[in-house]
Structure formats: structure tokens, C-alpha cells
Amino acid sequence: MPSTQGLLRVQQVTKQFASASGEVLEILKGVDLDLERGESVAILGPSGCGKSTLLNLIGTLDRPTSGSIQLAGRDLAPLDDLALAALRNREIGFIFQMHHLLPHLTVLENVLIPTMPLSDAKIREAAVQRARPLLERVGLGSRIDEKPGTLSGGERQRAAVVRALINQPALLLADEPTGALDRASSETLTQLLLQLNREESLGMIVVTHSIDLARKMSRVIELRDGRVIPAQVA
Length: 234
Known about the structure:
There is one protein chain. By secondary structure, this protein is of the alpha/beta class. The protein has one domain (about 5-225): 3-Layer(aba) Sandwich (Rossmann fold). The protein contains seven helices and ten strands. A six-stranded mixed beta sheet has the order 6-7-8-3-9-10. Strands 2-1-4-5 form a four-stranded antiparallel beta sheet, covered by helices on one side.
């Protein structure tokens, strides 16, 4: 059973950018969002509404203009860039629409990239031991020594999922993870994410345009005019 301990709290978060003309653009206008461990949330909304911006703020790739973000009860605002990078590597996994696998590395080497900052040989070896069964689980056990160019689009995206999970993060952030896949590969990846969400007790936030994907999450919200509203998905 997933823990009911709160994992993420976003409170009154705003994000502003300056346009080329000097005009201040307010993308997010007081966003609130809570996420429990083991819960999955889909974020819907039109292009340009701030979905990816919100994901970047939660993932510590950017900082909010105002408001607060807490991960596992820890306020992220006081952390410097080095501390945020360490937290991001340890606690947050990312999946993007494009897999971003390095073409000159094998599947296994790509999966292990997030462990490279770790200097402890025992920790790195433990990561290898975690990677192999995960790759087996996603149907890539026989492909670990191959380069990404030999894989299908769905296989490359599954490798990216394993890479996101290799450091056993508490939070998984996925930005249009099925956007570049065909219907069959999208369904396979969706079922994989849901299974991992349950079994690893991950908190998972998925930004998507896919109503089919959104319906499978625990909860669906929508970003509209810079604010979060309940989404209506039949």
C-alpha cells in the first residue's frame, strides 16, 4: 500500500518572465498542488499555459518568482544551486518526450548516467545491480549492450524510464512521455509507469495532452490562465 505521507507541497507559486520588449509575462499565478507518496497526477492544459514551466519548478530546474515548494517537508527555497543539483539527482527522476539517450553509449551506460556523480564504488555497483532487473522488466534485458540507434522509439523511451528510476527517486516527473510514440508503444509505456508508480510507491506527475493517459492517473488537474483548476475528463 502506498504511504499517505505527503511528498510534495506547492503553495501559491508564481512565475514571471520578461519578454523581449521588457513586458513582464506572468505564466503561473498562485499555483497550489499537493502530492502524496504513491499518488499519480496528470496535468492537462493548452500549449503555452505553463505546464512544463510548473514541472521545471517542481523539478528544481528553475526557481519560482514567489511562493514555496516543499519536497518531503523540506523547503527548497534556501538551497543553493549545488544543493539543489544534489537533491535533484537523488530524489527526482525525469522523463521527457524525447528520450535524450546518448548515441555513443550502450543502453546500460545510458541508464547509469545519473549515478556518475557518485564516487563510492559500492554505490555504483549497487546501481548496476538495480539496472539489470529493471531493464529485464521493461523488456530490454537482452539489449543492454546495444546502442540506442538499434532500438525502436518505444524501446528508447523505456530505457529513459529506467534511467529516471536508477537512483530510486521519490518523485517522478514526466513531460509528454508518450507524445512521440505510436498508440501501441504509448499504451505499453503508460502501463509500465502505472505499475512502477504502485510498486515503487513513487509520487508521479505527468504533463500530457493525452486524455487517455490522463484518465489512468489517480487525479487529473488542468492549468488554465496560470492557475490550477479541477479537470473534467469523462
